[in-house]
Amino acid sequence: MTDRDERLDRAFSALGDPVRRALIARLSRGPATVNELAEPFDITLQAISRHVQVLEAAGLITRSRNGQQRPCHLDAAALEELTSWIDTYRMRAEAAFRRLDAVLESTEEKQ
Amino acid sequence: MNATQNPTTITATPGTPFLEMVREFDAPPDRVWHAATDPDLVVRWLGPSRNDMRLESWDVRPGGSYHYVHITPDGTEQHFRGVYHQVVENELAIQTFEWLGAPNQVAVETVRYDDLGGRTRMTTRSVFPSVEALEMAFQNGMEYGMRESMERLDALVTG
To answer: Per the domain annotation, does B66 fall within a domain?
Structure first.
């Protein structure tokens, strides 16, 4: 596996959890502290903190220091790498459909 | 006929196991249907590139099944299989889809062929058993799609 594959693997397994996906969705609107992230959830602050650690280890978020607070930020570049596989999938489908276009042109000639 | 731009649109809402893919073709539904279901024609386009797809079985009718193999540039084989639930010629096919690299993760696909007056809009809606299964299918697609692109790039720069 390449470094990129390993990064994607870590990122995908981190996003395999619905709470962590919700945390990412929240952070896409702007940075937040663990306390702020925990607000909408019915689970302990410790549990949220563990989820944040998983996201941080996966390289999806970073934490800055701001006095006593350590707000979480979404790493836009890491997320962009994740979404680029949708583009690759789309390009692969498009490549197949272009071959289908060519097949359709050749069957037209025969008719 | 001039090749027009017919972009492929893929819609996947994060956190859901649904995927929709839309593509239009410059041919009426009966010809698109024929190219997608005829065993001699389908191998010319559905593989990872040209002529590297093999059919183990191909029986397009309600209750029929299919099993095809993609041969990737490094020679490894990827097997895909499923069963046709419904087949309405030139209009509709509903089938299961399973990549044997991740067995028992079976998606249900509904493929519609809409007549746009001499042109066709093909809409494929897939429902995966879980969000994880959808992400896995994407990852697999990315991985060997990339390998394939690298091979082509390689051929371009050395050729």
So the answer is: yes
Closest CB from A16, A95, A101 relative to B25: A101
What is the mean pLDDT of the segment spanning B106-127? 95
Q: In which residue ranges of chain A is pLDDT below 50?
A: none
Picking from B59, B124, B17, the residue whose alpha carbon sits closest to that of residue A96 is B124
Q: Give the closest of B3, B46, B142 to A101, CB-based.
A: B3
* CATH class for the domain made up of A3-85: mainly alpha
Cα Rg, chain B, nearest whole Å: 16
Residue of chain A with shortest Cα separation from B29: A104
A104: which chain B residues are within 8 Å (Cβ-Cβ)? Answer: 25-27, 31-32, 35
Q: Which of B2, B4, B6, B8 to mutate to test the interface with A (most CBs of A within 10 A)?
A: B8
Cβ-proximal residues to B29 (8 Å cutoff; 6+ apart), any chain = B90, B91, B113, B114, B115, B120
Instruction: Specify if B143 maps to a domain.
Output: yes
**How many folded domains does chain B comprise?**
1
Task: Give the pLDDT of residue A82.
Answer: 66
List of residues 6+ apart from A76 with CB closer than 8 A: none
Where along chain A do its domains lie? 3-85
Question: Could you tell me if residue B72 is inside a domain?
Answer: yes
Of residues B21, B35, B148, nearest to A104 (C-beta): B35
Q: Residue B73, exposed/middle/buried by CB under 10 A (0-12, 13-18, 19+)? A: middle
Instruction: For residue B150, give its domain range.
Output: 10-158
